[in-house]
Amino acid sequence: MSTHPLPLDGITVVAVEQAVAAPFATRQLADLGARVIKIERPDGGDFARGYDTAARGLASHFVWCNRGKESLAIDLKDPRGLAVVRRLVADADVFVQNLAQGAAARLGLDAATLCAAHPRLVAVDISGYGADGPYAHKRAYDMLVQCEAGLVSVTGTPGQPVKAGVPAADIAAAMYAFSGVLAVLLRRATTGLGGPVEISMLEALTEWMGHPLHHRMHGGETPARTGLAHPVIAPYDVFETADGEQLLLSVQNDREWRRLTEQVLGRPELADDPDFATNTARTAHRERTDAVVAEALATLTAKAALAGLDAAGIACARLNTVADVAAHPQLAARDRWREVESPVGALRAMLPPITLPGGAEPRMGAVPALGEHTEALLRAVGMTDEQTAELRRDGVIA
To answer: What pLDDT digit, counting tens, does each position of 230-248 carry?
Structure first.
């Protein structure tokens, strides 16, 4: 049986990108079949290459965000380098950039300028705070935007706000850029016109703040930081088992509470006790509610507790470490791991979450070395070996 081709086969993307937001967006496009040409500085390239050396000498951020791309190391400040990129853009379907605010416009690589010259092009500007307003030129790294968007204020314990453990602002911006590109490509398929896409990290992450933001704006109190507990549902927290593991469980309604009391806690009388019978009562008496659950689970091993909770239809989960996730039985059973080539050999990576049954498997290409594809790409735009040698001699390419 023939499989459907990857949906972005034949699409070419040129990206002047760095760090996480734009690279993660374009990696999604590469996984779905697009050809992604990554423009990097000759003197070190994308600075994410230097974040760490955890991936057998490569930076873990870079490995995560840049598989399946071609690396062109070229100096955009040199007119010859900029001319090469302009030639690549003229033949591209998509252009993505996340340079510092104003830098792309000075090079003529902002979305508005490029789309005016190339009406079929989909051009994406990713910035921290947007193209205008009082914050437009403010530096915008992930943790700074997490603070500005209020995410830090609702994450952590009552006494200590904390950032998210992953770059949430970068990822939010990346995924809206990815979906924005797909939307405009769809429009182009019917109208023939591409167009600009603008993504702000602040606006992307503020959208993700939907529940606490709407709760507060429309008359409620700002949700309290409650660690792993839920601010308005009880029991919904982490509890320790007899063998020292930690399990999170969640009771979403009073029917589930009754099943928990009868089948796991061994305290069926609590199902009708007015101090516990409703979620409102359990939340009002949260410490007592949690103490009852904690006492019961402390007598069970994690295996026994999970079996009992599952049998009773109570939502539950292990509090896994990162190492546990890498060995997760569900991911293994669904065959979600692959190997991706890189300058240091094969590296383990997870299949993208977008699964297309009946279609070709995502294209998880190699992680490129800096400038690995420079000469081939210059030849493709008509440069001679002598011209390439001159650019290399002058430090314009690497």
So the answer is: 888 999 999 999 999 999 9
Q: Answer whether 109's CB lies under 8 Å from 95's CB.
A: yes
What are the tens digits of pLDDT across the range 356-390? 999 999 999 999 999 999 999 999 999 999 999 99
Q: Is 9 helix (H, G, I), strand (E, B) or coil?
A: coil
Secondary structure element (H or E) that encloses residue 293, with its range = helix 286-297
Is 170 known to be catalytic?
yes
Q: Which of 31, 142, 170, 290 is catalytic?
A: 170
Beta strands at 69-73 and 35-40: parallel, antiparallel or unpaired? parallel
> Measured between alpha carbons, how far is 332 from 346 in angstroms, rounded to an integer?
18
Return d(Cα 11, Cα 23) in angstroms, integer.
17
Distance, CA of 233 to CA of 237 (rounded, Å):
9
- Beta-ladder partners of 72: 39
- Give the closest residue to 96 by CA, choosing from 243, 241, 197: 197
Q: How far apart are CA 73 and CA 248, in angstroms?
A: 47
Give backbone dihedrals phi and psi of 348, rounded to 5 degrees, phi first. Answer: -75, 140
Using an 8 Å Cβ cutoff, are 62 and 100 in contact? no
Is the pLDDT score of 2 beyond 60? no
CA distance linking residue 2 with residue 359, whole number of Å:
9
Task: Report the C-alpha gap between 301 and 200 in whole angstroms.
Answer: 47
Q: What are phi and psi of 2, to 5 degrees?
A: -75, 150
- What does the buried/exposed string (b/e) look like for 237-268 if buried means 16 or more CB atoms within 10 Å of the residue's CB? bbbebeeebebbbbbeebebbbbbbeebbebe
CB neighbour list of residue 150: distance below 8 Å, 6 or more residues apart: 206, 209, 212, 213
- Bridge partners (DSSP) of residue 315 are 250
Q: What is the DSSP string of 208-257?
A: HTHHHHHHHHTT-PPPPP-TTS-SS-SSEEEEE-TTS-EEEEE--SHHHH
Distance CA 349, CA 63 (A): 9
Q: Tell me, yes or no, if the pTM score tops 0.90.
A: yes
Q: Give, for 393, the enclosing helix (H) or strand (E).
A: helix 385-393
